Each structure stands twice: as C-alpha cells, then as structure tokens.
Amino acid sequence: MKSVLAALVLGFGAAGAAAGQDVPPDVMQAYRAHQAALEAGDLATALREAENALAAAEAAGVDPGTRAVLAHNAANMRSQQGDHDRAAAHFQRAAALTTEAGGDAVAIDRYNRIAAESLLFAGEADRAEALADEVADRLEALPESPERNNELGRARGLQAHAMWRDGRSLVAGVRGREAMRALQRNGVPDGLDPAFYAFYSGVERAFRGDYRGAAEWFGVSEALFRRENAEVDLYGVARAWGRYARGRLDDADRRILLQTLSEGGWLDLGCEAECPADDEPGFMDGPGERVDAAPVRRASPRYPGRLEAAAIDGVVLVRFAIGQDGRVQDPEIVFSAPHPDFGDASLRAMRDWRYTPATIDGEPVVREAVYTQFEFMMSD
User: Fold this and answer.
1) Region label for 52, one of left (φ > 0), alpha (ψ between -120 and 50) or beta (otherwise)
2) CA 177, CA 198: separation in Å to the nearest integer?
3) Phi, psi at 275, each rounded to 5°
4) Distance from C-alpha of 122 to C-alpha of 221, rounded to nearest angstrom
5) Could you tell me which of 125, 192, 131 has the C-alpha nearest to residue 161?
6) pLDDT above 90 covers what percent of the chain?
C-alpha cells in the first residue's frame, strides 16, 4: 500500500504521501488491530497495537510524517491509560519526526507543549516548566498568527500552572498574565485554564498592592469561572478577593475598572445588577445613623520561621467579623499562598486586634463581612 493510501486510512499528512513509500504490511496490520480494539472498547489491546504500529514503522524507516502520526496516536493512547510519562516521550518523538518531515513550526511546538502538559500530569513540574519555557521562547520569535498566539498562551499558561503547583505563586501570576495577553490577541478567551491564569495574576497584583490590577484580574477570573459553571473553590475566592480589591478603589478607579472589563468582553450584556463595580450594599448603606468600626490596635503577624529562612513570600486574605466589644470574631482564612502557615500566622496576630465597634444610632453592633489582606515579603 502506498503512503498516499495510508494517508487516507491512517489520517497521515502530506509529508508521508509525498515520500512515495510502501507502508510495510506489519505496520498496517498493527494499526488495523488497534482500530478494531478501539471499536471493541479494549483499550489495553488498542494501546499495545498502537505502539506495535509505531515500533514497526520506526524499524522499517517509514517516512517521518507517517511515523509522527503514529507517535501521536500512541501518545494519545498512553494519556488515556494515565501513563503520562510515556505519553510525553511519544509526543516529543512526534515533534522530532514532524521537524524531520519539514513540518510547520507551530505544529512542532504544539506536540512539545502537549508533552509538557503530560509531564505536569505526571507530577514532574520542573521538567514540564522547562519544556514549556523552551516552547514559549521559540513561539515568541515566530510571526504572529491565531495558531501561534494560542500555543504561546497555552505554553505560558502551563508554566504558570507548574509554578503555582510548586508554590511560586507570585511568578505564576506574571506567567499567567503573559498567557492571557497572548490568548487575548485572538479575542476573548474562554475555558477553565484562562480562569486560573487570571486568578494567578490577581493574586500577584494584590500582593504588589496594585488593587486596580488585582480587581481587574479577579473580575476576569470570576467571569470565566461563572461562564464555565465551575465548581471550584477558587471561584468563591476570586469573588471575595475581587470585592475586597474593589473596596480599596476610589470612585474614579472603579469607573476605569468597569470600563476596562467591559471593553475586554468580560461583562455580560445587561449585567448592571451584578457588574463588579456594583457590589452588594455595604454596612454604611443600611438604614439608621451608622458609624463603621475603626482599628485601634492591629499588630502585624510574625513571619513563619521556616518560610522566612527559605525566603518564601506569601499573601493571605482573611474574612472576619468585629464584635460589639471591638474584638475580632470568627476569622476565616479565605486564601493563603503558597503555604497555610502564612494564614495561621495571620490568625494568631488577629487575636489581639482591637477596634472601636460599629454603631447604628449610637448602639454597638456586630460588623459582619470584613476582609483584610496580609503580605509576607522577603524579596524585592
């Protein structure tokens, strides 16, 4: 069977057809056995025969375009079986063979990017990050196109995921923002991955004290989580932290924020009742003569010793109430990154905080839903 016919049967690209080779019978036999096993739902046999087809094609020196497709097929089967290390090796082999076949540069690094994803799934965050960095650097040098923008965004986003998983939440925010900028060149991104990229960016901006930037990125994250109907804890965190960040803005900055989110496509039409600039009424918006709680003593938390020794930065968001006696009540860690010890240190410090209590018509009341943020920073 000529490669041109193999291209029709196996879905191979033009590189293999142009080579004009015969595809050895053992390659076709293994591939057909793979297809039959897939149709029968026998994934173990389908995987074995996919790798048999690849091994036979490699041994026979079949054209690299054909071998690239077979490597891709074997990689997909390994992924389905949860063998992500082997999947990564097959995807990288597909990239090398596509290079040998003179394939498109973006297509080559798509294979490499998927290989990096497989490594991350396998728990090898360092290798995943390094490979994704190589891919992104190559893509940065290519002419802009929708395909290149998408791959660049996904490669930078993969770095962000790996860094976040490794506890480097601040640099993850920088990579997440780079990922979003690349994806936004193609329009408004969608999906859960961009929601996480935006969340990482919001955390990093909040840590830097850039509350307008934090409010923007948490607003983006919240919109994406909502559109995806995501049932993840970070959705609620994005909502809470976004509200806190917006509360730190003056009216002019809030208007700029709303305009930025609207122009970016992050606000649904007719969202006036739930736009980020239109938060739920605050304590001061209720009836009666109201005086808000005011801090009297707010000691800073002590840096957790082992994290200080390791020069690890951190950021914490806490939700609490202020009692009628001015003491902190029911403090709850909304978020603590990159380690829960930062949250524990924050709660310990808040035990001794004191406020003048909030009042309504001169009577002390419990002040609910107060948020505060702590930054732990060892490096510039």
Assistant:
1) alpha
2) 7
3) -65, 150
4) 26
5) 125
6) 71
- Residues 376 and 307: their CA atoms lie apart, in Å, by 10
Whole-prediction pTM: 0.83
Helix (H, G, I), strand (E, B) or coil at 207: helix
Task: Dump pLDDT digits (tens) for 65-108.
Answer: 999 999 999 999 999 999 999 999 999 999 999 999 999 999 99
Mind listing the pLDDT tens digit for each residue in 141-153? 999 999 999 999 9
Rounded CA separation 123/251 (Å):
45
- The β-bridge partners of 329 are 321
Q: What is the DSSP string of 241-306?
A: HHHHHHHTS-HHHHHHHHHHHHHTT-S-TT-TTT-TTSPPP-GGGSSS-EE--EEEE-PPPPPPHH
What is the 8-class DSSP label of residue 166? Answer: T
The span from the CA of 376 to the CA of 339, in Å, is: 11
CA 187 from centroid of its chain's CA atoms = 18
Name the residue among 146, 66, 71, 154 with its Cα closest to residue 110: 154
